[in-house]
Records
---
Amino acid sequence: MIRFLIRRLALGVVVMWLITVAVFALFFIAPNDVARTLAGRQATPEVVASIQARLGLDQPLWRQYLDFVGNALHGNLGYDYYHGVPVTTIIAAALPITLSLAIGASVIWLLLGVSTGIVSAVKPRSIADRGLTVFALFFYSMPTFLLGLLLLLYLYFYLTLAGYSWFPPGGYVPLSQGVMPWAQHLILPWLTLALVLAATYTRLMRGSMLDVLGEDYIRTARAKGIRESRVIGRHAVRSALTPVVTQFGIDLGQLVGGVVVTETVFSLPGLGKTAIDAIGQQDFPVIIGIVLFASAAVVVANILVDIGYAVLDPRVRLH
Amino acid sequence: MTAPQPSPTVHVVGASDAEESPDERRIQGRSPWVLAWGRLRRDRIAMISLGVIVLIVLIAIFAPVFTLLTGHGPNDQYRLTGLSPQGLPVAPNHEFWLGTDDLGRDILVRIAYGARISLLVGIVATVITVAIGVVVGIAAGYFGGVVDTLLARLVDVVLSVPFLLVAIALVSITGPSLTVVILVIGLFSWASVARIVRGQVLSLREREFVEAARSLGASDTRIMFVDVLPNVLAPVIVYTSLLVPVVILTEATLSFLSLGLPPPTADWGGMISEAVPYYQTSWWFVIFPGAALLITTLAFNLFGDGVRDAFDPRSERLLQQ
């Protein structure tokens, strides 16, 4: 187990290193003239040069890269080009919103995906199974932003017109102002993200459950007279969950993408929307900081999922 | 600019005379490709989906016909007839069959032209993705050792980078354009293809026919692409058919985030993005482009599911007949 951990962590470090190189190459070697943009159209060459020196843009590339990695390791991601606010402060402000969205959506996503998968698998080819299949396929083909807009149109706008203002149109209320207002503002974004992602899991869980239900030990459990609900709940679901855990690790990267879109549709000022806004302003330190932070988060989350997987299934450790 | 026709069936039939599986049945001599095509042709849902896909392709090719029928160009703004006195989009009527957008442009005509972008990106980016993935996967699986380790790590990196964030960052540096969108999707999506191909090649390379080819003096390149490649085509075709809708969704998402094609190009994702401020007053502005996008991805997903079933009848189907 220790060897597995070391190998897994080493891989994570290599991946992170390659990501920093890629991000650095993308942003620092790519042709863009930030100093000139910042200095304004009528700036003299001296002003441009001084801004370049302040941002460290006049240093040789290898020096810039070392500074960049060194600073990032010290928790210094630079300052936003326009207001001089530390990027870490910007990330810290946006992170609770993104985490609220991502964690809440993940919970709904997994509960929905796993439970519908179980229902489908317990009675395959039943009406419920077919209905859930059509449902899953529909949401699998659905673009996240379109679903978000449709939920806004029907559950916010038409419902409010009809006199039921249950769902707000967007925005974020911090958890400190109460759980209910927080959850109420996030319910539509959660559903948007969760419904699209859950679709794959319905199918995955169904297939995995059907495989497990055909195993001998399930027959043994039934033969021993254990209640069917216990056979399903205790014996089958547990081992059927293994592929779902793997897939969840793989999909964390996809979750980041979904978060960006959902935050944009519901104007939630989380990491994704902050990054998109920064891109519009060519505010590179903010973009780089968020890309690095999000990549690191995905890498760490993947390691955690793999460790969890290794605990669940000892065979994994051998590879 | 004509969108290429997304018909894997052409590959299937064309490929059947190129290679014959050694274990084909002697009695009738039908190759696995012919068998797969036969199964696909009997698959009602897949054939209906294929019909829908062909229809969308025809709409894309003959988009100018909609201009002729309605008399509206895709970027023509009808400020008098296409906008209400308050300056809002006009609901569907006899002149604008699917209504107008915020600039008084005909949504029907723009949807028809938008189909070109979706299909073009969907197919070109998929081909690039699959080409990179196949080459990397075959090389990793065939050479093994250091090459395999390096390529496998590269695959891990590409898979763990939050694709959309880097993609939008890249697009923002280079500026939005069709080429960049296609390259971004192609450069970041190949890793899963490489993984699938590598797994197949790992076992294929130990087979006798590879040994035979090597003993006859065939070069590594020849073995990889003449002997091994045909044997991984079936899973690659299945994956390709399921990748097209994903790519179409990715392109629409980039356009929605204003990082796809620059305006005024008609593009489904971009149209929906323009509709966001108007969803309360003009439902048609959201619903029609959204429906076009959803129908397209649904058709490709159902068709891809049929293709998978045709090649591997034991696999788990999305929809039972």
Note: Chain B is about 70% helix and 0% strand.
---
Amino acid sequence: MGPGGVGRPVALIALIALGWFGLGLVVANSYYQLMLTLVPIWAVLGLAWNISSGYTGLVSFGHAAFFGLGAYTVTIALIRFGLTPWLGIPLAMAVGALAGAVIGYPTFRLRGHYFALAMLAYPLALLYIFTWLGYQEVSLPREQQAPGWYMQFGDFRVYIALALGLMAGAMLISLALERSRFGLSLLAIKQNEPAAEAAGIDTLAWKMKAIVLSGALAAAAGGLYAVVLLVVTPDSVFGILTSAQALIVTLFGGVGTLWGPVIGAAILIPLSETLQAELGDVLPGIQGVVFGVAIIAVILLAPEGVFWHLRDRLQRRRAPPPAPPFTTPVLPPTPPAVAGAGLVVKDLAKSFGGLRAVQAVSFTVEPGAILGIIGPNGAGKTTLFNLLNGFLRPDRGAISFAGREIGGLKPNRICRLGIGRTFQVVRAFPRMTVLQNVLVGAYVAAPREADATAAATEALARVGLAARAQDLAAGLSTRDLRLMELARALAGRPRLLLMDEPLAGLGAGAVEDLLAVIRSLSAAGLTIVIIEHTMGAMVRLAHRFLVLDHGSVLAGGSPREVMADPAVIEAYLGKKWAAIRA
Amino acid sequence: MLEIAGLSVAYGGLHALSEVSLAIGEGKFVAIVGPNGAGKTTLFKAISGTVAPTGGSIRYDGRELLATAPAARAHLGIAHVPEGRQVFASLSVLENLEMGAYAARERTRRPSFERIFALFPVLFERRRQLAGTLSGGEQQMLAIGRGIASMPRLLMLDEPSMGLSPAVADLIFERIAALHREDGIAILLVEQRVAEAVQSCDFGYVLETGRVVLAGSSAALLADDRIRTVYLGL
Amino acid sequence: MTPLGAAVEAFLQALAAGIFLGCLYGLMCVGLGLIFGVMRVINFAQGDFLMLGMYVTFYLVTGFGTLAFLGPIMAPYVGALLAGPVLFLGGWLLHRLLMSRITGTRAAGSEGDGHYSQLIFTLGVALVLENGALILFGSEPQSLRSPLAARAWEIPLLYDPLSAVFLNKASVVAALLSLVIGLALYLVIGRSRLGKSLRAAADNPVAAIYMGIDVDRAHRLAFAIGAGITAIAGGLVATYHPFQPYVGFDYVIIMYAGVVLGGMGSILGAFWGGLTIGLVQQLATLVIPLQLQNAAIFVVFLLVVLLRPQGLFGRTAERV
């Protein structure tokens, strides 16, 4: 995915489709014509897989379910009801979309291994059901009258054109997706699902949209496959090799980009088909061996796929742009008004098993103030943040923000109400620009793309990164990554910002830069709560301290008061400290 | 016995340790203190090999540890009791100790757990119980017991009092001191209870944001006001 | 014979078939469960280890005539047991040469990029193995029918002189051998120093390194043992079932269903899981058409994953 307009990629898609069709005009051999048709069809299945699995990172081994449903919908509609594939394929897409919703809703509750295994089971269950229904081998009848109406053509080049049309459509859909909040939200899920939730992204909703769209596209590919091959068997459309093929072409070409499945299909399908044709009699399994070796080689040599491998090499060869000289952040002349909002926490409690991580915690943050939460390791500070932004539901107590009770709401709802959060570990999209990285955070407050871009640009200016908006995030220093993450949280226009160890791992100079930015945000009216261990910086930054120890509030007040409190000194330095030093 | 020179560790651009040098002699007790995020746990991980340094050297008995496979380091007589205990929750208490003795087999014919049970009698009572069902304090005792089951010459303890009640923490401290005093094991201790740690050590180092900012004998450190500044910012 | 009597007879017959088949499934699942429990890797090639176990047994018995001297009854069982060490070696080499580059302590326990590439890597291995087998062994189904497969013990049912349950001798012997091997592995993993070190590496890989346990070697051993155990199960299946190079994927699904049912990562659980799958598969034939037998497995599997992902027999404190 790259920055810039859509003109060039659209032209490239058209060029590829036309070039491929030109090849079809030249080739006379009917076997090669079939191959030229199959490449775009498998590319569409790969593109479909890429939408629901490539961008989100949730690996599906079950895309054959959608492909097979598409193929059988077209076939059965034609045989039983005389419905032309011209209408059958759209019908198949509707069936695929519905299947995506029905499969996705329960399965998205699962993670990792369980998700992959569950997805594997759907097409295989369907395989046996279709066999039992008596559809072991279904041929599409030859229509003598009006063959064109039934999508049957004597000239194979029409099929090539149809397949290319479908592929171009799927590529354009992928392109639109990559350039919109849809694609960015999916990428954010892949990177860190909880962080995406905290940035206001309704992750379940986006994943559902992705699998519905993916199911429709995969079903369209299956429908066209049935029309081209004229015969459908449960094994050929629901079999595990079909699911594997979707994954293999995408993985080989490059995951998470619309070019990946196309490159993968264009290389692997002709290679394996040719080998099958030339050597199939002598070496019957050569196709599978080639696929297998291709997967192993890609995983070992270029796990990111051909596209990303080449692109990264190309980028490395070009001299990297010199980093702009060090500048202290310059605020826009008129800082946008951020109406600060206060936070009132009363008697908050959360236990894990027998461990009381947070107990009876109450405190108030005035609008526009900076509250520092400090305390020894394991004192419950991060648990408190997780309660405040909705990752955890409190067992007891109330959290009210700007006069509204928010305890127990989902993270994306809380973000929408104006509470942003940054994390200890910065997770950036290294292959995207700084601006695109920040855009992910802007969607929560901006209904239109233009508004989101404006909010992201403004947020970058507020942290002093405006000059680097178009650079790739991969080249940023640690300080700039921190600032970028801060900008991502600011882009959602929060009124309260929760910052988890923003200074960890920074050098002395970088700490001062971050402090300056945080102070300026506070001056513009933002309410800030910080967890941080760098005490020297914290006493200069925070207006008030809240000290946690063993899950409860040990002390609260101005930094000077708090750090002179004997109970705090004991918590930090041990109870014997005072006695020894006395 | 252990000499660390110019050790640096960076994770994805973050400098967790920069040019740290320290040493511990045979049978000595060295404490490392410093606020959270100072790089203490990273230092321990670099010594036992689960984190790869970007520069520097770690020599143990004159041998370069960075050229030794992580699992092989335990066989040299280094035991690491990690932060957060990390007991094998699905194994029994006895099996945990047997795993602790895994590296001892080459050096002693038959590892004996008598010393461990003498230090922590509760472990003997619970020897058949799964480690995951123990209380926090008991798990810490098991983690230390598992460490000494390998008959180490150097015992590294990472925050042994973390999350424990003061009474249990006192008990653990006392047992660590006994191990050093009576068994002659060299102790490298990372601890948040600064006063106790500094008071019982022979020599101490203060880490702040990945650097050694202060080093000295127990008495010298206790007299220095900079520890307080490092922790409290004032 | 009354209709009720016939139904009872059919039920008992299916129950017996389910138990015997289930024991074999149980042994396969134990092999897979060991790999999953220690390495936390989904291994798609496990079905092909099973298939290779079948072919190794087949060639040991018929191909070179090596085991012919043992006679037609003993030879297949000895062959199946020998397939274990052969596949142990194969698994060890596969891990040593290729898999260790993408697994190991770095990826253990994580479900990030490392896990993603392992999953796909094993899919690639599976494709190479089964299609390579097709090239080497041909697509003709083979069988190694033990003479026992044609014989059965007849257990008369007391209430009705006309009815009886037939127990196929080959499947009874295979089930008993599976039980013995499964139990032996359970004891080795539970009691021996080696087994404990595997469990420690599975439980907490980083702490295991601190104990001086070479976690990469533990993974390699678990992978090799798991491959060998599943290969033995394959050899035993081959004594009364025909097979061809593509059988792997049919069984890999059954194995995963069993391992998930058993709670992913407990040896005892994996065996129970496999047994349950065998029972579901055989008892399902009483109420639904034969072709839907396998669909029933997947429905049960999906229900378990969606409703009780910790498995039917899983307990969090008990892993491997």
Note: Chain B has a mean pLDDT of 90.
---
Amino acid sequence: MSSTAAPGSVGRPRGRRLPSIFKRQGWQAFLFIGPALLLLLVLIVYPMIRTIIYSFGNTNSRLEITRWIGFDNYTRMFTRDKSFLNLDVFPPSGALVNNVKWMILYTTVSLLLGLLIAVLAARVRYEALMKSIVFVPMAIAATAVAIIWKFVYEPDPNLGSLNGFITTLGSDPIAWYGRADTVNYALIFAYIWASTGFAMVVLSAALKGISEEVIEAARTDGAGEWDIFRRIQLPLLSLPIAVVTVWLLINVIKVFDLIYVMTGGGPGAASEVIAVTMVDEFGNGEGGYAAAIAVVMMLLIIPIMAFNVRRFRSERVTG
Amino acid sequence: MAEVAFSDVAKIFADGTRAVSDLTLEGHDGEFMVLVGPSGCGKTTALRMVAGLEEISEGEIRIGDRVVNGVAPRDRDIAMVFQSYALYPHLSVYDNIAFSLRLRKEDKAEIDKRVRDAAKILDLEPLLQRKPRALSGGQRQRVAMGRAIVRQPAAFLMDEPLSNLDAKLRVQMRAEISKLQRDIGVTTIYVTHDQVEAMTMGDRVAVMRKGQLQQVAPPQELYDHPLNIFVGGFIGSPAMNLVEATLERSNGGLIVKLGSRALALDDENVSARPALRSFEGRNVVVGIRPEHLEDPSVARDTPDDRRLTGHVELREALGSELMVHLRIDAKPALTEEVHELAQDAGTTAEQMLGGSQHAVVVGRFSADSSVVEGKDTEVAVDTRSLHFFDPETGLAIYDSNR
């Protein structure tokens, strides 16, 4: 931000300038964007402010504020609520830690798998079929994904296909989502299965946007397939990769439905994540505490959003 | 540096289309060989087969002593310049030019030296840090050239490298590429649909049509001695006028009857084309280059048997000369193209032209000419420079064994 620039000075940094429409014909502009602005205010800004206000109080079961407690909901979250964040044990545990695991594993694996499939699919004849198959899970609701994977992970080898498979190899069946040490990975894998299609479709489209002649030029310049990928395709995919990463990150910070349906955060609190904790606390009548958790979640998402917006803006200026 | 040779090369696409048939052609070491022809004639496919971007269906291609049929593009030691330039959009001009050298793990200082040398030759020095999108069309073209010359390859392959430039720049770059190629002396195969480019740049020009090589010759020979109607009509701008005529004998000499008029042929003309005698009394296609038609008021001493009568339909003043479109009393020649067009339209060529008895020919007249649009005029014909083709085969009539 250019706090040093004089108000109305022409020396604002590029990309920070208000669209000139605001200066030229203020009221007419608002006539056009007014309805949308009103909806945003009512549906987003107002609830957001209310949530922030709630987060500084305690509520009764009818979600009326009974007492103002300042930042106590926040201190509770980071110090006293061991199911949200437990730093006393090693490795640390709790919903927040689980969420970080999700962010790292889910985002990288979905992205890399999506990229790999996009690149490889472009080289085979049955590309369309292959991409459709990978994309299908995207069309399935997360709750349905949960049901599907419940069947896959089912402890009874006669029902659960994964256990059915490993028992034929001679292993004992594993209660994939019933054990604290496997439940998070089992859930993350199911969610990766559901999201790889998205990464693949976006990256595959971007890959198609790279001119065939550029690839051929590289080939005659002496590039092998790996050189083409690393020196040409990957750099040219940097923007779509950033977009997909941001989408996956935001998606994973908010992850809720799959976990809620499959494990409800269990066993114990082993698979709790921020959103599941929030809903649980809300159900316990802890409206203020739930609101504080919601605010923390929002604060996690904001920097990613900001990065995304800036990235787009810089692309527009240089591109 | 090396020669590039096609022997009996064919390209058949998966759908059965024969894009190139029986192509046998050799670009000598250091030669600037131009492949020219209308779109879809297979010239680009031929080039791409040399580059390794297209598989060779039949025959073989040699670069130097090596048959490259199964060799990957990266190992063929060729540099290609694409129509779209195909610059790497995320790399600076410097990095674009250095790309191939870096792939070959050349020494850093050596890369820098060679990139700067190439940039110097191509006037790219001030632009080295720019990205391609910040360059004009001509500059991009130069970067594409830079990327090719920095390699010091066995051969340059250029696929219509000038067709995305505006007319003025094209003329300028044409000269620059020719000069550059001559200085570097690398065997070059240059594909274009523009016969002016072909004529001005090529040491030799290979004319292609529908996947088949029509004629390979130095530009002037191609112009003076086209082997068939297609080459005659394709090379030269404005195009050669092609009209039907009958060859007859009159007063001991051969005459060409064009409608109601007749042109007398010199003995030297006939002796240069002995096969003409066998066409006596038969139809031939006569080809007249526009510059061999002139206003008789300029070419004053043209005798009557070297003249046609024409109706001036259009008079285009180009300043230095006039392009005069004349309707003359003779049938337009039914070339193979006309037959094909008619076939596509489900009719015959004769029907399509409405059995027209009047061909429109273009004459390149002196600017002093006083012809007037809408009036009839006499036209002087340089009969020594007439071309003759067999209407049956489309082949040019020279001596009988040619």
Note: Residues 167-184 of chain B form the longest helix (18 residues).
